[in-house]
Amino acid sequence: MNFFNSIASIFQEHLTLIQVSLFAGLISILWFAEVFISANPWKKKLNHSSINFLFIFTALPIQLAITLGVLVISDWVVSHHWGLLFLLPHPESFWVKYVIGFFLLDFFEYAYHVTMHKVNRLWKFHLIHHTDTQLDVSTTIREHPGETFIRVCFLGLWVFLSGASLGLLVLRQTVQTFSNIIAHTHLQLPEKIDRVLGWLLITPNLHHVHHHDSMPYTDCNYGDVFSIWDRIFGTYKEMDHSAINYGLDIFDAKHSDKFVYLVKTPFNEEYLKPKANLPL
Ligand SMILES: [Zn+2]
Ligand SMILES: [Zn+2]
Question: How far is CA 226 from the centre of its chain?
């Protein structure tokens, strides 16, 4: 067993505990860092974040229950040598199993995010993530329970199609969690560094553009960890950070901090695609 497999097996044994601790620890550190650099009173920030934190209680049970099913699928595909990764030469090598596998799952996550925006029935669940008018690190966990269910079901499909092993899933989930948290924080990287990293990765600036309240910016920078898919498929956009207006033009901002209203929103016929009120 090589070094990477040893690390993967330690992670697998304590998967849930390690992930939840990493997630909570990093969010807390960044949350306090945001308070430190912000001119807004911390009580106002706490009020805003508490709505987002409530979504943990709806997401965790759904996520944990369906993830068990995803792990069963992963076990099955690996033992039956099923999936795209097993069609490549040397499917057991580090490069195929972890590197190509990581890129393949990242492409599937890009496809998932595009699907959530383009299919109206799915968009109604995903738009809850976009209704936050004060984007910060807590927005990472602002996800309607319906989307949590849809997202983990799609993950099962991606594992079935790719042949992803448990080790790859652990690596993927860990990097993805870090990337998503950092993409939402409003601690800004120096512009030059952000621009260089943006050639490969979804940086905070790039994801913030995705949270602009109107089209065509709402439908851009869909990438999860890598920005290369947006560049390849023409959905990459940049915007002056000071011009970004968080939220959604079709959603009345007075409801953006009402938890029950947000949970009911996907069943409200009023909310469809954002209006294309900016030139393409
Ligand atoms: Zn989105
Ligand atoms: Zn986001």
Answer: 12
